Model the fold of this input.
Amino acid sequence: MDGALGDGASDSILFSKWRSDFSRKFQYYLDRSTPHPVGRWLGTLAVAAIYILRVYFVQGFYIVSYGLGIYVLNLLIGFLSPMVDPELEVLEGASLPTRGSDEFKPFIRRLPEFKFWYSITKALCVAFVMTFFSIFDVPVFWPILLFYWVVLFVLTMKRQILHMIKYKYVPFSMGKQRYSGKKTAASSSASMD
Done:
């Protein structure tokens, strides 16, 4: 009796060790992918293409795809929104500048790019796995779901863009800002010669 109990305990310890090792290795590769956003997003596009092909060939799982689309839309809103919403909170140091004389404060996202990418990739993988279980294949008329999602997307993006215009922020930056400096009179006169 004790031997059987001991085997269960050793199996539990082995599983715990395997899980810890797997988690450590997964985190290692996740950390290594951090400085490579283009590669990460290309990989996610490949996963999305595989998912789309799976749904297309199976001709089903439209509810799963709709749920995935709503989730991605929710993530997109978090990605495009500032950490501190000027409509909801008035904080002294962390608000967006509202006048030209205000000090420049960099745009800080509510959902950072890495977490945005990771959440989308995880959601695509979960949705892909769900396509192998017929319980999730609820029969629906997919054009209605697609139309409703497009309307929801347009209305949500309109609201987000109006918010960006009202509070004068752009959630994207085009690389590192570089200071070119002022041209001195000597260097400009030398270039005229």
Q: What stands out?
A: The mean pLDDT is 83.
